[in-house]
Request: fold
Amino acid sequence: MEATMSDDGAEGRQRGRLKVAIVGTGMAGLVAAHRLSREDVEVHLFERGTRLGLDANSISVPADGEDGGDLRVDVPMRSFNAGYYPSLLALYNSLNIAIRPSNYTFSFSSALAPSPWLIYNGRNGLRGLSLPSSIRPSLPPLRTIVRAPHIAVQSIASQFQDVRTYLGLVVTLALSYLQLLVLAFWHHLLGHCSDPSHPITKQPFGEWCLQRRLSLDFVNGVVLSLFSAVMTCQHDAVLACPTSEILSYVAMTFLRSHYQVAEGVQQVEAALTKGLDSDRIHTSTTVKGLHPTNARAKVCLVLETADQETQLMHGFDHVILTTPAHLSASLVESYIDALRARRRVVPAGDDEKKTLVQEEARLETVLGKLLSIRVEDSLVINHTDRSLLPLNRRDWRDLNLASPSYSSSSPPSEDGTDSCEDATLVDSLPILSPMHNKEQQQQDDGMLAKDGRTSPYGGIARHTMATHVVSRLRSKGQLLLQTTNPLPGSTPRPQEVLSASRFQRVMTPPKALLSGLFDWRPSRRRRRSWGDRGALGERLLSIAYACMPVSKWEMVAGELQGGQEGMPGVWFCGSYSYGIPLLEGCVVGSDLVVESILRRTP
Reply:
């Protein structure tokens, strides 16, 4: 069944208001809607789910507190760093969103050795490291000391040897981090990370690490584990990430605090939609296609409702696609087909025919870019299964990272022999060559749970598994845990699972791929102050950083955004717009698109 919904709005036509459709209701879509609604633009939001996307998968659980209230748990976790998220922080300031510090502590483990090999105590390193319980010295039993003193002496000597080895590893990691930090600041301050013509914006991070001879223990054990968790992606994707984006993140987050929204991201969602007309928020509605209308510079949306009814909604001056790149690409394809069909019926020599050809060419270019942006699946499980934490309670930290087990030196080849000296890049990084054995292969193939059952959630063997200790629940003193991308063999027991949500995460595209959609150019504007809410040390760092004679760049909306004159505007933004695909990219991209729309409006 097909119905037509003109919804032009007589009042809107009389006042000449812009009418904008926004597809997708994550952070990018809601920020765009919020900005436009404040400029008296008629905004329509479209979401295929039953709830708005930003807070759709979050849950409420009974918290362990005297007030007896519920705790809102963001899914996925929405932590942000003051240095890397200046636009997001400014948005929260403008909305009066309360935030709280969340300077996490970390434990680093291997999948085959659940006791952590490294424990980081947070506070930007000011609290140092702790000895893992597996190597913490302890005296042998008194009985052993009395009856077999030589065994006791050997035991004590062995323990001190373990501590000595650990301290040697810590020194190696510290020196490697210092090396990475110096290189990151060097490239970032000189503007190399923002210059699309600089080699590091195209060079994969794994290749760069080899060229700079960074310690493989440091890269595999720390860097890949952290960035796999931050980016919610496979280790291969971290190694393939443009070096510039990793270095920017390292430099911009140095000595900066992490924060979370105090009341959960539901508060952000409510603030961003506060001024929107509820009749123009269309949930359970899938946008199936875009079509030009008989009225020039207008576009029609083909919609499918929850009951499989097809509807047409006309009269939009602009459409902003904020869905993941591959979903936006399908809508672009439908629009290109519709433009071609229209062009065939336009008389030869008509100016409209030339405009349609140019618009098709623009959208074909955009389509190629969107289809080139990689997407990976991610799984987030809220549960109470403590078996996913380190074995010893003293090793538990806020974020407990467990990575796949790889060889510590040269990786084995497929036939089990040692790799040759002239190994390729892929073979030279142990993280890309997991140890193969029959048990591990069985787990990889069948995604087995701890007790041998096939996991109902699957698993992603090349991710870092991150288990966040969220809070203590009121019932039976249980811990609320949130595990992202459980490893094979480390799936929570079904009876302890509270919720499980799948997401599609965009991988970091190189700046060259996004050229035309979002471009970088030198800027003389004053650098934004990042220390508004930070501690005194952070503010001093921000002031010193702003005074440095660094090369400043700014991102702008490219010429592929919008469309030809006389045609409706079709715009693109999302987490992929800027840097590592996170909430900052959503805000930055949406702001640029909204500014361009308003600037284009007479």
In short: DSSP finds 17 helices and 24 strands in the chain. Confidence is low (pLDDT under 50) at residues 7-15, 407-461, 526-533. Residues 2-52+273-373+510-517+558-600 form a domain with the FAD/NAD(P)-binding domain fold (CATH 3.50.50.60). The chain has two domains: 2-52+273-373+510-517+558-600, 104-256+375-506.
